[in-house]
Protein: Glycosyl hydrolase family 48
Organism: Actinoalloteichus caeruleus DSM 43889
Amino acid sequence: MTASTLRRRSVRKAPVLAAAALLTTAMVPVTSGAAFGGAPADDLPADVEVEPRQPSEYEAAFLDQYEKIKDPASGYFREFDGLLVPYHSVETLLVEAPDHGHQTTSEAFSYYLWLEASYGRVTGDWEPFNAAWESLERFAIPGTEDQPTNSSYDPGSPATYAAEHPSPTQYPALLRQDVPVGEDPLASELSATYGTDEIYGMHWLLDVDNVYGYGFCGDGTDDEPAFINTYQRGSGESVWETVPHPSCETFEFGGENGFLDLFTDDQAYSPQWRYTNAPDADARAVQVAYLAQTWAEEQGQAGAVADTVADAAKMGDYLRYSMYDKYFKQIGDCTSETGCPGAQGKDSAHYLLSWYYSWGGALADAQYPWAFRIGSSASHQGYQNVLAAWALSEVDGLIPESPTAQEDWATSLDRQLEFLRWLQSADGGIAGGATNSWQGDYSDPGADHPTFYGMAYDWQPVWNDPPSNNWFGFQVWDMERVAQYHHITGDERAGEILDNWIPWAIEHTTVGTGGDFGVPSNLSWSGEPDTWDAANPGDNASLRVSVVDQSQDVGVAAGLAKTLLYYAAATGDSAALATGEGLLDALLANQTDLGIATEETREDYSRFDETGDQQLYIPNGWTGTMPNGDVIDSDSTFGSIRSFYQDDPDWPQVQAYLDGGPAPTFTYHRFWAQTDIATAFATHAELFG
């Protein structure tokens, strides 16, 4: 069956069709009467009123979902000076990667951009898309006053080494001058290209409502979202063991040295700023900018998004920091802290999208200004984005301005495709990833350990509580991008990966009636991949994955639907189309006033007051306070340093659970998930009408 023979099922749903009224004549770009089945618009008599085209069923579903998300009464955004900042979720009592629902992430900003790009494709109105980027740039990218001492950065000495440890109880980590670090090959090129030493990348976490009270650089105000951070203490630190702290450390809160001496062991501490980038979010922003440019060009409106696309290309230029080892050491066989040398040039580049890059420095009034930059040694399969790499290396308007950026992204595209092929299990699922710094301190994983360009295989890279690659959502986020890339380019390397992944995903997905559905949730891994040989890839016969259980995660279901639809459009696979449409129809049957959602039970909320081995770790003798006066000491728990949760309207059912009652249930409206649903409907409309 070819893609041209595939057709959507004509299932009419009254609640969805009501959204057709949103598509007015003014919202439809009229370049030809063909859009309405008639003569060119310019040739119509003046007294003839042109009726807007009727949206398809799924396009109408997109518009309905879009309206719910953008309705101020729904509570997805907070407005600052006419710009919208998306919350992580409508609900406030939510603990996952962010530890409060009214924080936001760079991920949320990238999804906000995607929502508005899809709206632009449907309506021809690109102002909301540009406004989303304006918000992203103003609030998520640190401005000049947020990162004031970059001019003091020395690319020949980018950072002082500190090992990562597997448990928070092994922190603070000692800063060591005796461990060699490499040189930063990007700094001078970027400064020369853009005429500034500042970094153009998003910080990953913001406190939108200033719930913690840090404010801008410790001033305690809530005039704008505050940059904060949480995870700082190795692979064993779950969200339940984090100490939220300001990205601008003035020693106003925390202990004698603010929060710094919980994380690093130094002879002296100085006030400073530091930010952490989540590369998958910046890459998604680039991916979406490519889509917006493509759709605007098809409408004859390329100029409407040109400035935003140019900004995305600039972001992609700086995103190359995620391609480098944390301390710019050589890539491959780096198995000793002191024995593994620092690299020169691009010998420290693994060309994958790693878990983060970070930068920081002294505050503006420092007597001895300084700055640092680090990459990340660990790369997770779920962060890779082959479509962004392709766009940054091949697409006019998105190729960055720096002299070596296009070549770097071309290398990254090939390396990412190899990486996914290397990690693909015999069952089809994609295993965790690889690291250039085994156990976070450049240990030796052993001669028989499988490697990828000399980097060690890690089934749970970056964090282990819970294991980082056990969530099926990471499979979907990555494979959706692979499927989109394959649909656009026809690259057989991507097609081979998908040919093995798609049947596995379909096999473990169920679609029933009345809105019943199940998608894979937790995964279990065994075995290892073969050591990578690009000329002769192995079959990974011993690397296996099993699906432990299913869930009704609406965001994952929407992402899976998009993946299946792109694959169906590229290959004509009828099973992929039927399953993708089945998931969309199931989502439509789970409407709420705020979007589309299902109920979930949170047994993990027992950790609000957890004590013992997995308690929030504060060293004996260390004391401090949160901005609201909550005491921080060795007796603290996750909940005790977040006493504001006790005033949350949803707290009583959590307290009842802590008192011995049943686990609480919630119906959450996460911004990324609601946007994934909206864009899934829009994807069907784009691909199949």
About this structure: Confidence is low (pLDDT under 50) at residues 1-46. The domain at 608-665 is CATH 4.10.870.10 (Endo-1,4-beta-glucanase f; domain 3). The longest strand covers residues 272-277. The first helix runs from residue 14 to 17.
